[in-house]
Hints:
The chain is an alpha+beta fold. It is built from seven helices and seven strands; from the N terminus they run ββββαββααααβαα. It folds into two domains: about 1-40, no CATH class; about 40-200, no CATH class. The strands form three sheets. A three-stranded antiparallel β-sheet has the order 6-5-7. Strands 1-2 form a two-stranded antiparallel ribbon. A two-stranded antiparallel sheet has the order 3-4. A hairpin with a 6-residue loop joins strand 3 and strand 4 (about 35-40).
Amino acid sequence: xxxxxxxxxxxxxxxxxxxxxxxxxxxxxxxxxxxxxxxxxxxxxxxxxxxxxxxxxxxxxxxxxxxxxxxxxxxxxxxxxxxxxxxxxxxxxxxxxxxxxxxxxxxxxxxxxxxxxxxxxxxxxxxxxxxxxxxxxxxxxxxxxxxxxxxxxxxxxxxxxxxxxxxxxxxxxxxxxxxxxxxxxxxxxxxxxxxxxxxxxx
Length: 202
Ligand SMILES: [Zn+2]
């Protein structure tokens, strides 16, 4: 008896034989038209390059000041973690926790999980318990909100410009580039390709 790999449409649950991926093409569900797979050329290399570059920018974005305020000839700088700490000390701990989780913790976990999955594959090794890391990746992805942080900081810069001189720090540029690289890494990360290289059921 011939055995076929099966897959299910994530939209309408239609059970299908695993389709052959056309080079440069897209596979759609024959019933509802939802996109099942998209061809990502060199997805592992591209996703890994974006992830490692994003990790470097993540360090820069958290080590260097994000913004400085010039008052009476003095410029006071703060890092993102410094802003979280001030929020906490001022009694706004729910806001501090939200900023900490969505702009520091979740992007870091997302980058760590992607590096953990992609690096061993690139070195032709198998990571330990990739299923756990996949779960962590899908849990953390919706909670990473660096783009919201950038918009929030830009709004704050415009508002504060009326009362004090605002000096953008290195971290704000790093966060901007990090936002783009995170999006590029997520777009290049092809979980189907990763599972195929791990030799696990897809
Ligand atoms: Zn469907």
